[in-house]
Amino acid sequence: MAEKVIMPKQGLQMTEGTILSWLVKEGETCEEGKPLFEMETDKLTITMDAPASGTLLKIVHGEGDVVPITELIAVIGTPGEDISAILSESGSSTQAAAPESVQASAPAQPDAAAGGYDFDAVVIGAGPGGYVAAIRCAQLGLKTAVIEAVDVGGTCLNRGCIPTKALLHPAEIYETIAKEAAQAGVHADNLAVDYSEVYAFKEKVVKRMTGGVEKLLKGRKVTIIKGRATLTGAHSMVVDGKEYTSDKIIVATGSEPARIPIPGIDGEGVLNSNGVLASDKLPEKVVIIGGGVIGIEFATLYNSFGKDVVIVEALPRIMSTMDEDASTVMSDVLSSKGVEIHVNAKVTEIKDGPTVVYDENGTIGEASGDLVIVAIGRRPVTKDLGLEAVGVKVSDRGFVEVNDKLETSVPNIYAIGDITGKVQLAHVASAQGCVAAANAAGGNKTIKYDVIPSVIYSNPEVAAVGITEAEAKAKGLNINTGFFSTAGNGRSVILGSTSGFVKLVTEAVTGEILGATIVAPHASDMIAELAVAMNSEATIEEIADTVHPHPSVSEIIMEAAHDVEKLSVHKM
Fold first, then answer.
1. What is the rounded distance in angstroms from the CA atom of residue 372 to the CA atom of residue 263?
2. Which of 182, 274, 346, 444 would suit a FRET pair with 357, their CA atoms being 20 to 30 Å apart?
3. Which DSSP letter does residue 420 get?
């Protein structure tokens, strides 16, 4: 007997869902409990399983269709079975629905843009800012296109955030087994790393994430145009010789590794972050120029795999943008693991070998390795976009000037992400994308940058939001601080991470939270609690009075909140 497949209700507020892709084609066999199709709601993307085994006789709604809950979307049965009654009951035709394919020339929804333009909104760049902006524009009813010169997902998904963390995960597994497991009675023999397989895992993760983004764009009827865009007017651009017009334009072309003028930087064995992530080789010794976020994460990666690492940092301390206590703790942690760190060390050249030559407080030193990683800075990708030609103001360093609505000097052109020079983080670009899209659709949204969490994915992780203690004092603010060490936290002790801490900076009179720094396992997850509290203008008393689960690392936040008032129970 034929089985109906309906649009399932996946939440109390859900009224409709979008079919992203059919994993079984019409006429093919499906198996009960095995993936049948992928769908998207306003809150999540989910894979749905087949409700019965049999042949997928009919796809009623194709890819990209938005379908009300409980409505028929397909029929499963046996070949030759009469399903006309089921289709008639649902009002569907007996002709199979053909899956849609989004091409550069495919129409988006709505079918016509306002003002005679090809599109209501065109986003240039499909990174974490651009693709979010494009989807939000489409959600707000704009006929939208996104132009991408290289890979959908941009730097973050292809050459940055995601691949780096996909390498750090197996590195953490290896370090846990190699250096910590025996302490808990777990013994492993013949432990080995096949870095080509680690690399393949990274590639698999990247492919899944970028594929997911393409499906999201497709599901929202966003037209994807592959190629490099050049603005030719306030409402026009050319891509590979073809002109497109749009009422609103959002520029989201991101950034790339900066090229530092160091003699020998183009030598063999010298790579930037892009080159490192494209390599499936695991070097025995690495020299890293730069002790910022990128440098520390690569140091963590190779050190966790048991390789020799040297960090050469020109400033007085690593992680210079973080709280000084965090820098000190992580310097001690990395040194205890065998990482060699040189600060106040300016690189003068890179010799064949490769060998880094540096001047450390007037003393010349050298560090050689199989690989030298240049992990210093990024620059905006704004060259040859035609920005200046159409009147968009760009700084001497290539950053696009915007106001708090992300508008450029040309009213209908917006800019988001790294090219604005505000905060070069993927989640900031995404937030900016939502703001720019809302304004492109006629809204009046603004963005603030005082509550932006940042993370270094070291081991332990480092996360921060707001201002540091030193910054608060430099501003002359009347503050109190609360501090709690992971050494006094049961879950951290179990995890073998007792060198970290949480520090809270609060306004002395009102108790308003001004900033926070966490060095601990799962700091990247916990910092969101403090960001929400700051954004909601919660006080330190409200954090202290919130019951936190036990045993959890998050209890250190509650303890630090109590410590602001000198009432931490688990601190002497």
1. 13
2. 274
3. G
Average pLDDT, 10 consecutive residues per value, the chain (572 residues): 88 80 94 91 81 94 90 93 86 44 39 80 97 97 96 94 97 95 93 96 96 94 96 96 97 94 95 96 97 97 98 97 97 98 98 96 97 94 94 96 96 96 96 97 93 97 98 97 98 96 96 97 97 94 96 98 95 90
Do residues 157 and 206 make contact, with C-beta atoms less than 8 angstroms apart? Answer: yes
In sign, the C-alpha dihedral spanning 143, 146, 152, 154 is negative
User: What does each C-alpha distance from 534 to 174, 358, 494, 512 come to in angstroms?
Assistant: 37, 42, 30, 8
pLDDT at 105: 34
Give the C-alpha separation, 485 to 498, whole Å. 7
For the CA atoms of the chain, what is the radius of gyration? 27
CA proximity to 289, closest of 353, 338, 380, 358: 358
DSSP letter string, 245-272: EEEEEEE---EEE-----TTTTSTTEE-
User: Cα(420)–Cα(48) distance, rounded to whole angstroms?
Assistant: 40
pLDDT computed for residue 95 by the predictor: 41
Q: Which residues are catalytic?
A: 550
CA-to-CA distance for 324 and 345, rounded, in angstroms?
18
Residue 69 and residue 201: Cα distance in Å, rounded? 36
Chain center to CA of 283: 27
| Per-residue model confidence (pLDDT) at position 90 | 73
Q: Give residue 29's identity as a one-letter amino acid code.
A: T
DSSP string, 180-219: IGGGGT---SS----HHHHHHHHHHHHHHHHHHHHHHHHH
**Are β-strands 54-59 and 72-77 bridged in parallel, bridged antiparallel, or unpaired?**
antiparallel
For residue 220, give both structure tokens.
């929202």
**Domains located in the chain, CATH noted:** 3-90 (2.40.50.100), 103-257+377-450 (3.50.50.60), 270-375 (3.50.50.60), 460-564 (3.30.390.30)
H helices of 234-375, in order, are 273-277, 293-304, 324-336
**What's the pTM?**
0.81
